[in-house]
Amino acid sequence: MDTRLSPDDLAALISRCTGVPVTGEQVTDPSRTFDDLGVDSLGVMGVLSELQRNHGVPKDADLRPHQSPRELLALLPGRV
Amino acid sequence: MSPAAVVTGLGVVAPSGLGVGEFWPAVRDGHLALAPIGRIDPNPYPVTVAGEVAAFAPDGWVDPRITVQTDRFTHFALAAADLALEDAALEPAAVGPFEFGVMTASYSGGVEFGQREIERLWRNGPEHVGPYQSIAWFYAACSGQVSIGNGLRGPSGVLVADEAGGLDALAAAGGELRRGARAMLVGGAEAPFCPYAMCCQLGLGLLSTSRDPATAYQPFTGQAGGFAPAEGGAMLVVEDADAARSRGAAVKAVVAGHGATYTGRRQFDQSAQGLLRAATDALAEAGLTPDGVDAVFLDAMADPSADAAEAEAVRLLLGERASRVPVTAPKAGYGRCYAAAAVLDVAAAVLALEHGLVPPTPGVRDCLFDLDLVTGAARPADLRTVLVLSRGVYGGNSALVLRHPESPITGGN
Amino acid sequence: MTRRVAVTGLGVVAPGGIGTKTFWELITSGRTTTRPITLFDPEGFRSRIAAECDFDPVHEGLTTAEITRMDRYVQFAAVAADEAWRQAQVAVADPWRLGVCMGSAVGGTTLLEQDYVATSRRGRQWLVDADAASPFLHCALSPATLAAEVADRVGARGPVRTVSTGCTAGLDAVGHGARLIEDGKADVVVAGASESPISPITVACFDAIRATSARNDDPAHAARPFDRDRDGFVLGEGAAVLVLEELGHARRRGAEVLARVEGFATRSNAHHMTGLTTEGVEMAEAAGRALDHAGVAPDEVGYINAHGSGTRQNDRHETAAFHRLLGERAHHVPVSSIKSMIGHSLGAIGSIELAACALALVHGVVPPTANLDTPDPECDLDYVPHTARERPLDVVLSVGSGFGGFQSAVVLTKAGRP
């Protein structure tokens, strides 16, 4: 199981799961929420499930559209 | 049905073409759009010829955010809705907030998306099912996405009555117009070409197993050996006549009457009476008698007993005129698109009224029945009233009467 | 001349028992039927609870051929239709004037999934083996077969259709069925809905969006509409069928009229496939239009059967809609959700709720909302917690909300009302 994801990897994963084009820069911007990016609640759940399945994010983690991808990045193991 | 329902826009996504600009010339000229199935490759199944919308990809038609959360059948519906609105020159925001609704018919739903998610569940476990399964597979996906995509907050519905449901959806939309809606997007879409959907359809025992696209779907002939299935769809803008007039819309046809009956699952011999009754009811609602019918668009199941029953229904309806009134089945050229089949027929019939031409039944030469089946080339005709017949594998028989917009308005209730 | 619609027969298959009498006793007792899933092994799923029907098709009188041919949801519908048809005792002289309008959201999903497992070798083979499929698999692809099976049981030859607007299908099927009578297309319509969605794929798809309750250690208290401690809906299954009859037709033959279906309307929120707005505008609009259609003022509504699925978003959306519809009077109209007792059976529940509404009119009793211990502070209406309430009723409103943004409303009135 690959648990290491760069911001660019995360951006690509979000794009793949949600159809929304997202850049690595956008996912590290703390002021940009999923809502701002145009990712809705279902999209956020899809991204979270993908990270839980394949990237070691804990099963009980929660995430909402008003949160930012940067907060998601912090949930990934091996990152601060 | 109220005489007040008028067709003002057609959106077609068919094997014969995208948009009426491609669809009508192909239908008019009897173009054959059947081909070996490309979406199931390799194809181990006995059915190998179908009508695919091979040129269609969602890019450019569907927002990428929506593409990932929808099945191909919804992509067709969204594209057809865009085309219909454009054809009607109708901006949804110009209609009152609760006065524009959606009505679709579906037979197989988002089955390709569903197959993929069930596969993930059984191969990898429940947590591998994605969040979009809950909104992509079900039959209501198209009505929901078309409503959301176009900001339509009026009445919505979804019918899954077999193939006849396409006409029933138009009748249900007419019911909404009578109850206060001003416009409805109405139609259907199907995308039944993934292995599992094919596996389900094979059980019908009604699909053609011919490997030659030129002879695979030959209704009303001695070679009739089942239909070629198709994917695609059509959406129509149907408006209240006063609403259409007040915005200066070009009216393409009047939806004048509808009838629907049921004659039992797989009892095609019974469908002659069922189609007759449905057609008689539809004509009565339009304030017409069978004498007024100028052309008939046929269901054309290409099953010997079903074809015989349909020919019998036409003969009983039209009496001695049966051998003189032009009848046709353009779908022989592009396949039978389940719940969307009759909607495509309605689109073709509206175009026939508009152009004064009855399109041919492609690939068919020797009609077994004493009907004036139009073959070869389109036939010019002064069309005022066209009857569309549709029938489902689970016993539904429906009929719709369309009239030229310059015909005197009669009937109604 | 306006054609009005009477209800002259009812049939119910619901968790907690088969038959209208058992159903009414259950939902007025406040007992819940939610329990651990037994229809398959739910190990590994997030939500492992449901409201299941203890249904034995042999005991209910279905033949071996019917049991072989019909998926579980069709069997439910057959049994419910038989009960309703027996009660109505209607002889329709002209079968072309007898119609059927049935609803289902996910139809033959259970059989589709079972056969997929068989034909794909548990998901390992994309090119499924068609020879391993059941001969009835084609019936599962499209719930058009649901209405056809019911039509065959009652001998219908008029309009026969299935409605599949997701979770509002049960209301919409009855609404569209009533319109067939209003519009003169039929004199009698057998209308209702059925669903048997408790299968791995359906449970997994609601798991994926966390829509269902994960209160697996306390299933009896898991369905908690309007309660502060709710955590989603509990999946259910079942069917209900109503015999609808043109009022004059029913009167001429001296039939007992249980209730009248007087109003129906739908609206879409055009907002989100699963999300609801906080304002409830479209639901209020659908309800208002249905009341208009019935010729009833909002002031006359004596009970609202809520969608009440038990998701936070729904409960607030709906509460806002009722405020918008009824204004100040909203606080004085009892509102309840029987989903608290029998779960949410998707496309079927709307018809089951209409059966409950018809019975509420007949008995003058409002069924309660079970498990409502601590109301959500944002849900400030009278939700009839725990205990049924006697109340003479003339006009009842039932609403539903479904994926796709659909909002539906049906108005039933008491038989003797002018």
From TrEMBL, chain A:
Statement: the UniProt record of this protein carries the keyword Phosphoprotein: yes
Native source species: Lentzea fradiae
InterPro entries xref list: ACP-like_sf (IPR036736), PP-bd_ACP (IPR009081), Ppantetheine_attach_site (IPR006162)
Keyword annotations: Phosphopantetheine, Phosphoprotein
Database matches in SUPFAM superfamilies: ACP-like
Name recorded for this polypeptide: Minimal PKS acyl carrier protein
Limits of the Carrier domain: 1-80
TrEMBL record, chain B:
Transmembrane segment boundaries: none
Pfam families noted in UniProt: ketoacyl-synt (PF00109), Ketoacyl-synt_C (PF02801)
Ketosynthase family 3 (KS3) domain location: 2-404
Molecular function terms from GO: 3-oxoacyl-[acyl-carrier-protein] synthase activity
GO biological process: fatty acid biosynthetic process
Source taxonomy: Bacteria, Bacillati, Actinomycetota, Actinomycetes, Pseudonocardiales
Keywords of this entry: Acyltransferase, Transferase
Protein name (Swiss-Prot/TrEMBL): Minimal PKS chain-length factor (CLF/KS beta)
TrEMBL record, chain C:
GO annotation, cellular component aspect: cytosol
Source species, domain of life: Bacteria
Entry keyword Acyltransferase: yes
Any one Gene Ontology BP term: fatty acid elongation
InterPro entries, A to Z: Beta-ketoacyl_synthase, Ketoacyl_synth_AS, Ketoacyl_synth_C, Ketoacyl_synth_N, PKS_Beta-ketoAc_synthase_dom, Thiolase-like
Keywords in alphabetical order: Acyltransferase, Transferase
GO MF, any single term: 3-oxoacyl-[acyl-carrier-protein] synthase activity
Ketosynthase family 3 (KS3) domain sequence ranges: 2-414
Family annotation (NCBIfam families): PRK07314.1
Entry's family note: Belongs to the thiolase-like superfamily. Beta-ketoacyl-ACP synthases family.
Name under which the protein is recorded: Minimal PKS ketosynthase (KS/KS alpha)
Organism: Lentzea fradiae
Lineage, opening ranks: Bacteria, Bacillati, Actinomycetota, Actinomycetes, Pseudonocardiales
